[in-house]
C-alpha cells in the first residue's frame, strides 16, 4: 500500500517522458505562446501613509483584475524565506516518509495529494500538494508533518501572520465598497483557514499539461506566496492569459467567489491557472480564508438598490463548497449556479 502511494506522487521520481494520463486533449492545452508576458498586475504598497489611496488602489484592482500584489505587508521577509525553504525540504523527504501522509480523499483536512481530485478526473495535473487546515491552529498542528523538524513552528507562525493580513485586507476591501471596515470580517463568521503547499516538478512537456487548469477560488480571499525565482501563475484578463511575474517580497492576493458575491458582482473572482516548465521545479504556498460553513452569504444589502438589483441569491458556504467540489475544476464559474 505504501509503495502504491509513493507511486501516486509526482515528487518521488524524475520524469524523462510525459505519462499519458497527464496529456490534455489538443483543445485544452495551455497555448503558452499566446500568454502575455510583460503585463503588470496592480501592486499596492500597504505601508503608504495615504490610507484613502491604498483603499482606492485595492478597490480598483479588485474591479479590474481580481488580483493584486501587496508589498510592505508586514510579514517578516526572513519568515517568508523560511516558509519556502521548509516547504522545499518537505517535498525532498524520502518517498516512504511522504507516503504516510498521502490521501486522495478531498474531505480529509490534512493530506498530501496530487493533481486536484484524482478520484474523478480523466486527465491529471502536474502538481503534488500538501493540504493543511490551519484554524484554530491548536486543533490541527498536532497532525501536521513532524518532518522537517522545524515545519510546524515555521508554518504555524506564518499562518497566524497571514490571517491577520487577510483581516487587514478585508477592512480595506469593505471600505472600498463603501461599507463599514468591519463588514466583511463580521459577515463571514468564525472563519476557517487552510493552506495548500504546492510543488510543481520539472515537466518534460509543459505545453501538454497544467499544474492546475483554469479555475476560480471558492473561498473569500486567497493570499499566495510565490516562488520568486520561477513564474507559473497566469490570470485571465480581457480574454487574454497574462503571466504574473513574481516580485521579491510581494504576496499575491486574489478575490474569491464569496467576495464577488458579496460585492454584488462589482469585484471579480477571476479565472487563473498554474503552468509548469521543463527547466526547474516550482513551489507556491496558497493560504485561503473561508467563511464559516453555516453563515448566510450573498450580496451586501447596502449594495443592492433599484439600479443594481441582487445578482446572486443568498446561500450558505457549506452549500457553495459542496457544489464547487462536485464539479470539474474548469466548468462554468460556480457562482453562475447561484444567480437570481
TrEMBL record:
<dbReference type="GO" id="GO:0002229">
    <property type="term" value="P:defense response to oomycetes"/>
</dbReference>
<keyword id="KW-0223">Dioxygenase</keyword>
<protein>
    <recommendedName>
        <fullName>Fe2OG dioxygenase domain-containing protein</fullName>
    </recommendedName>
</protein>
<keyword id="KW-0479">Metal-binding</keyword>
<dbReference type="Pfam" id="PF03171">
    <property type="entry name" value="2OG-FeII_Oxy"/>
</dbReference>
<keyword id="KW-0560">Oxidoreductase</keyword>
<comment type="similarity">
    <text>Belongs to the iron/ascorbate-dependent oxidoreductase family.</text>
</comment>
<dbReference type="InterPro" id="IPR026992">
    <property type="entry name" value="DIOX_N"/>
</dbReference>
<keyword id="KW-0408">Iron</keyword>
<dbReference type="GO" id="GO:0051213">
    <property type="term" value="F:dioxygenase activity"/>
</dbReference>
<dbReference type="InterPro" id="IPR050295">
    <property type="entry name" value="Plant_2OG-oxidoreductases"/>
</dbReference>
<feature type="domain" description="Fe2OG dioxygenase">
    <location>
        <begin position="191"/>
        <end position="291"/>
    </location>
</feature>
<dbReference type="GO" id="GO:0046872">
    <property type="term" value="F:metal ion binding"/>
</dbReference>
<dbReference type="InterPro" id="IPR044861">
    <property type="entry name" value="IPNS-like_FE2OG_OXY"/>
</dbReference>
<dbReference type="InterPro" id="IPR005123">
    <property type="entry name" value="Oxoglu/Fe-dep_dioxygenase_dom"/>
</dbReference>
<dbReference type="InterPro" id="IPR027443">
    <property type="entry name" value="IPNS-like_sf"/>
</dbReference>
<dbReference type="Pfam" id="PF14226">
    <property type="entry name" value="DIOX_N"/>
</dbReference>
